[in-house]
Amino acid sequence: MNYKDIIKSVNNRDFKNIYLFYGREYYLIENSINAFKNSLNESMLDFNLDIIDGKEIILDQVISSIETLPFMDDKKIVIIKDFELLKGKKKNFTDSDEKYLIDHLDNIPESTILVFVVYGDIDKRKNIVKKISKNGIVCNCDKLSDMDLFKWVKKKFEAREVRIENAQIMYFIDSEGYRDKSSEKTLSDLDNEINKISSFVGKGNQVNNEVIDKLSQKKVENDIFKLIDYIGEKNSSNAIRILNDMIQEGESVLGIFSMIAKQFKVVMQVRQFQLEGYTSKVIAEKLKLHSFVVGKALKQASNFSDEIIIDMLNYILESDYKIKNGLIKDTLAVEILVSKYCQRKLVNKNTLD
């Protein structure tokens, strides 16, 4: 039973007693959670929906939640997120606890729907995983197939009331690199890009290849590389120019901060591997990054010491908090970053010796 069929059956209230959703496509996992929520009487959600943190839950809490009857509805749904036993961990459970729970999965009340969700991989060797698979449905929320991805992207653009031809949908998908084996792109990333493009062209207007290129993630990544390079060269005027261009093209300041932080973390990683004697090719393989990204990071490592990078990451973290709490304007925060670090001595020669 594939993901679409599972969600369709849930929407039709054709339930199994046990489900397990896992994988890297958090978007699909969250969509499945919403499908279960929407299947219940909204006015009775507080009584008939339990969402539990599986990293902290104990056996008595699991059993109690499963056995509690629904109130003014025919079903109760128990959702347990990141349940430790499914990932091969036993922080809160003994071997006897695990066996008791596994045995209990054979006797779940007909009125209870038990849903496990794991954001990432599961340990398929575990007896509890085998039991869930035998008694219910296990669904790997992985990347969409080519056809499903095309339909999903098309639907997302249509929902935002912009016009786009099939050829441009394919061009967008290829530009994002979602289908690449080494790609870490998720549907959430694509949804953000679709929203950005749709906002840029406006309702009723046409999306073309030029707009996709202008706003593509690859261009954004290149702009981030340039921005960091300009800061390393203490070229504040060009750094500000790149920033303004990115903001005008729809990038949020928090998004820019996130990408800067991500790149500096890569810089620190590649520098450490380089100090250990690894070649750029081996570093790329170890970090599962494109050789171009590693090459840029190695070049940038010569302009920034670890001390300065950590200082910048702390500034970004602090600014993120201030922006979200209305303590500083986002554009001012990022302009301060450029001004502050274009004036500082960025290289610590001791780290390069």
TrEMBL record:
The record's annotation in Gene3D superfamilies points to: 1.10.8.60, 1.20.272.10, P-loop containing nucleotide triphosphate hydrolases
Q: List residues of the DNA polymerase III delta subunit-like C-terminal domain.
A: 221-341
Family, similarity comment: Belongs to the DNA polymerase HolA subunit family.
Q: What is this protein called?
A: DNA polymerase III subunit delta
Top-level lineage group: Bacteria
Q: What are the record keywords, sorted?
A: DNA replication, DNA-directed DNA polymerase, Nucleotidyltransferase, Transferase
Matching InterPro entries, A to Z? DNA_pol3_clamp-load_cplx_C, DNA_pol3_delta-like_C, DNA_pol3_delta_N, DNA_polIII_delta, P-loop_NTPase
Q: Which reaction does it catalyse?
A: DNA(n) + a 2'-deoxyribonucleoside 5'-triphosphate = DNA(n+1) + diphosphate
Boundaries of every DNA polymerase III delta N-terminal domain copy: 19-141
Gene (name only):
holA
- Tell me its EC number(s), please: 2.7.7.7
List, alphabetically, the PANTHER family matched: DNA POLYMERASE III SUBUNIT DELTA
Q: Name one GO molecular function term.
A: DNA-directed DNA polymerase activity
User: Which organism is this entry from?
Assistant: Romboutsia faecis
Q: What class of enzyme is it?
A: transferase
